[in-house]
Fold:
Amino acid sequence: MIEWRKSSRSNASGNECVEVAALPDGYGLRDSKAPETGHLTLTTEDFAQLLTHIRQGEPNP
Structure:
């Protein structure tokens, strides 16, 4: 079973939430307001690169 976790950076009101889950082939990202719409799958390397860009405040890669 996939365990989705809400981002610690999500809006405190709960209206702007991103969830992440470890998957067998990488990581999944989804909108917690609409989980039934599916998720984006990233490789471990791509997920690490995304986190690096976010932490450094860089624009979208």
About this structure: The chain has one helix and four strands. The chain has a mean pLDDT of 86. Strands lie at 5-6, 18-23, 26-31, 40-42. Residues 5-55 form one domain.
